[in-house]
Amino acid sequence: MGFLSLVGNSFGCSASGERLVSAARDGDLQEAKALLEYNPRLARYSTFGVRNSPLHYSAAQGHHEIVSLLIESGVDINLRNYRGQTALMQACQYGHWEVVQTLILFKANIHRADYLNGGTAIHLAALNGHSRCIRLLFADYIPSIPNFCSILRKRSRIDESVSEFDEGALYEVINRPADGGVTALHMAALNGHAETVHLLLDLGASVTDITVEDGTTIDLIGAGSTPLHYAACGGSAQCCQLLIAKGASLTAENANGWTPLMVARSWHRDWLKDILSRPPGSQPKLSPSPYLCLPLMSIVEIARQCGWRSIDSHSTCLDPCVVCLERKCTVAAEGCFHEFCTQCALYLCSTNSTSTPAHGPPGSIPCPLCRHGIVSFVKLASTMPIIKELPRTSLSLPFCTCSAEVQESISLETPFCKPDLHCSRLSPLGSSFRSLSCKRFPSVKFSPGLCMGAPDTSPCLVQRTSDRGLRTEFVQCSRSSSLRRSTSQNEGRRWLCSFNQSMGTGSSC
């Protein structure tokens, strides 16, 4: 009887965790709040086999409010699933910049690489062309100084601001290779994401880095290929022109002895012949990327120090934020000194992608009031730092042992509780016991295929509606639970050959 009680109570805890997973996937904020108030340790729950936590599901679906709730409940922000992917990787894969912004503000690690391909969040964002996510990923590396672009291009004669900028760290992060030596620029060029290629080049991505033969990755283009080889294979004329303008070599040969022109011919990209056959007469002038944002670092630092998610409405405030008209002003733009709340300033820096040049240096964003170029934000004198509170729990989900013979002296009754069933929870530290009287949640049917798909597949996290429109299904996909990197041809083709739908041979990869 004791064994059956233990098994039954384990299923009850699993049901609570699965219920939180369902709320995180569906964006049910009230349900998630209620479950975490009942047991904050449920934030550490992970699904069987694929090891996806509620944080993974909410990040993949773009529910940034639930992401914040889970992090504040004590979940590890860098928690991995069975493929080694973090919530930040999932948000970058699907382009949910609001989730990326939230994770960056909570200092998520952007250097984690997955177990399958060695790719980071930057690789996944470049693979799918999410330039806003890439901009947020480099918020701690691009200083809010007016001569950033000049320093990066070795044209600045002013040394006073160089100490604020670690160019070596930025170069190392942006050119970090995945398996096979594939960089983020390789992936963006292959898939024809010209805006992403432009941003990466402005941030210092190297046009001379080549791929290598590592024995595990299927490289259909050939080892020793530059980003221009990959752009020629993808067939994007704009990407080729951007790379050539940054100094990419037209005569570089890979391990197969192919030049970019030969790669284009082998993949039947005949429209690239004129671009790749002869160098331009004069070096074209490349305008700065519209996704470059200088004031992002300054506002991120202020948000981390003083908070950014104030929901109090200051209806009696004499000088509210001119953007939202709800919150009080906490920061001011250097130069024009117009004042905004921190949340609106973050929104301006995260969403700005206008090609209209502001009255300021490259990378500045136009002020919504006077169009003056904003390079950095400063906090107002009345803006006070917040007192950082510890998470409600940092412990993992405890084991439950159910005993009908032991009567507890103290019972905590909640809307989820029933006083006739007692559950004693063993502390992971083994020093004390905590009693809770609870009842099991109603049984809920879940899809057995709740796992994360590869970047080029539609994972079970994305809902699909049937033809009749009567029910919603979830895509099921089977994945091996092994943590070793796959050496199969299919995985290599998915990683290196995720072409756009416009490519003629895309369906074969």
UniProtKB/TrEMBL annotation:
PANTHER family: ANK_REP_REGION DOMAIN-CONTAINING PROTEIN-RELATED, PALMITOYLTRANSFERASE HIP14
Keywords noted in UniProt: ANK repeat, Metal-binding, Proteasome, Repeat, Transferase, Ubl conjugation pathway, Zinc, Zinc-finger
Catalysed reactions, as listed in the record: S-ubiquitinyl-[E2 ubiquitin-conjugating enzyme]-L-cysteine + [acceptor protein]-L-lysine = [E2 ubiquitin-conjugating enzyme]-L-cysteine + N(6)-ubiquitinyl-[acceptor protein]-L-lysine
SUPFAM superfamilies: Ankyrin repeat (SSF48403), RING/U-box (SSF57850)
Domain of life the protein comes from: Eukaryota
Annotated pathway: Protein modification; protein ubiquitination
Residue ranges occupied by any RING-type domain in the UniProt entry: 321-371
GO molecular function annotation: ubiquitin protein ligase activity; zinc ion binding
ANK repeat segments: 50-82, 83-115, 117-138, 180-212, 223-255
Pfam families membership: Ank_2, RING_XB3-XBAT31
Protein name, per record: RING-type E3 ubiquitin transferase
Signal peptide location: none
Family matches, as PROSITE patterns: ANK_REP_REGION, ANK_REPEAT, ZF_RING_1, ZF_RING_2
EC number(s) from the headed UniProt entry: 2.3.2.27
Cellular component GO terms, alphabetical: proteasome complex
